[in-house]
Amino acid sequence: MTKKIVPFSQIPGFDPYEAPVLRVDAHLPPVPALRLTTDGLRERFAAHERVWTPEVSNEPLFTDRKPAAAAVLIPLVMRERLTVLLTQRTAHLSNHSGQIAFPGGRTDDTDVDAAATALREADEEVGLPPSFAEVIGTLPTYTTGTAFVITPVVALVQPGFELKPNAHEVADAFEVPLDFLMNPANHRRHAIDWDGIHREWLSMPYMDVEARKERFIWGATAGMLRNFYRFLSA
Asked: Whole-angstrom Cα distance, residue 55 to residue 82?
């Protein structure tokens, strides 16, 4: 009989902020600067012949419910230094409460594709108008422990938008430089053994000088960013 996987939140004493760092992936090269430009990103998504393998595709499932399709937007804001727009979820949400996430959510029957889901959810969650976003591609699906099969949708976002976060879902919205996230020297590896099961995950803590706080990126968001790194490095 397969041992049941429990979510991190149910492991006694588990705190992702305090988890020991096994190693930092500083031995891996950062994504070249020219690829972290609007032209470089468009070119990479157009180069379908490049072979690459996602590093993280499936989290251990801790639910037996039917998988649900979802999509997130990876919004790359076209500032002088490209940034990634992220959100911090409110503490009362049932899934991934308080965690840093991309705007996104479950696919509706009216959504024609994953891009439609991601753009709609970003508008509903943070008030990012779809007219500001240019979708340039998608990444392979990422299945979370809660059985959401997520398609990451990558878009270039024109500056000038005014965010209006949904107070029920979003506690904060902020930007992190893309080159920081695409440098494995900022990728930390963690692991825990509990109840006979070994679990591993990544974190990418970012010190937000303007907000005077650390943005602790981990879990599914860090996993999808790691896949983005592998895609851009291939």
From this structure: 23
Distance CA 18, CA 129 (A): 37
SS3 label, residue 41? helix
Mean pLDDT split into 10-residue runs, the chain, 234 residues: 68 88 97 97 90 91 90 98 95 62 96 98 97 97 94 98 92 96 98 85 96 94 98 96
Determine the Cα–Cα distance for residues 55 and 69; give it in Å rounded to an integer. Answer: 20
Residue 229 is encoded by which pair of tokens?
């790194």
CA dist., res. 154 & res. 41, Å (int): 10
Following DSSP, what letter does each residue of 101-154 receive, concatenated?
E-SEEEPPTT-SSHHHHHHHHHHHHH---GGGEEEEEE---EE-TT-EEEEEEE
Residue (of 144, 142, 2, 147) closest to 63 by Cα position:
147
Structural domains in the chain plus CATH codes: 23-233 (3.90.79.10)
Answer yes or no: pTM beyond 0.85: yes
